[in-house]
From TrEMBL:
Protein name as it appears in the record: Geranylgeranylglycerol-phosphate geranylgeranyltransferase
TM helices/strands, residue ranges: 12-32, 44-67, 88-109, 115-132, 139-161, 181-200, 233-252, 258-280, 292-316
Gene3D superfamilies reported for this sequence: UbiA prenyltransferase
GO cellular component terms, semicolon-separated: membrane
Keyword list, A-Z: Cell membrane, Membrane, Transferase, Transmembrane, Transmembrane helix
Native organism taxonomy: Bacteria, Pseudomonadati, Bacteroidota, Bacteroidia, Bacteroidales
Native source organism of the sequence: Odoribacter splanchnicus
Main location: membrane
Highest rank taxon of the organism: Bacteria
Record bears the keyword ATP-binding: no
The keyword Nucleus belongs to this UniProt entry's keyword annotation: no
PANTHER family: CHLOROPHYLL SYNTHASE, CHLOROPHYLL SYNTHASE, CHLOROPLASTIC
Gene Ontology molecular function terms on file: transferase activity, transferring alkyl or aryl (other than methyl) groups
Amino acid sequence: MYEILRLIRIRTIAFAALTMYAMRYLVIRPMLDINGLALQMTGWAFFLLVVAVCCLISGAYVINDYFDTKSDRISGIKKVVVGKSISRRVAISLHTVLNLFAVSIAFYLGFAVGVWKIGILFLLVSGILWFYSSTYKKYFLTGNLLVGILASLIPISAIVYEIPLLNMAYAELLIETGTNFLYMFDWVFGFAWFIFLNTLMYEINKDIYTVEGDRENGNHTIPVKLGIRAAEGIITALAGVAMISAVLAYFVEFSASLAILIYIIFALLLPYGIYIISILSGKRKRRFQLWLIRLIMVLCLGVSVFLRHFFLLIFAD
């Protein structure tokens, strides 16, 4: 059982679920509450959506390990599970079941909200993740960018089913006021942007420590193609973009909140700074670096805790 949990990356699944629930209850619902509106997707339906997303993520990790067995053995960085404690046949069967479950739930929810085509998105992502593991990750930059983009869809998935239901429930109000619910996407996209940047940093950082296995497996990662120092420079630049984004977010959106300013300085800018120093030090501290960027991902999500009070300031008449 423990090996199965390692294979499906239980920590990553927990973060994905936390992200989706944070978007629903700390970002989307406060905006609706302030305007006297309510969430339309039931708690049970949203739970199913979270399960579907987590199954898709788990399936992606299973198939990735399935194709990466050789390079993982050469790199010696992480314990190889597929082909040892879990057979390759069991792994591919688990991947199939997880993806079928995810896509089935997605179509069920799509029909329930009257937009069945949303299910096609899950089917498309499932296929992309297969080809990422088997093919795309071998291409220079393609694999890293693809993982970053797909990771950024996690917070967005929390709202794509909600919007159609809100449009149906408040159709008359929207017509009378000439408004829509698309403004909520702006806030969710903000979190998606940081997840994209952090995931990109994490993936490139991880590739630094698997360079030998990637080279042997024909994966044209940034460290393989450009060298480790160049990869470290790119990571530093991305961290700099994230820091600038956090500062701009404060001055553009959050300047009325002292609490958010303090949080951004000590919970975002400081950890990013430590991460950059760790990268530029030239010391190969894999565990510390990857642990720190995971922590930063959670801390970026932590901004959502302050939003209810902040929305009261900007949305109240």
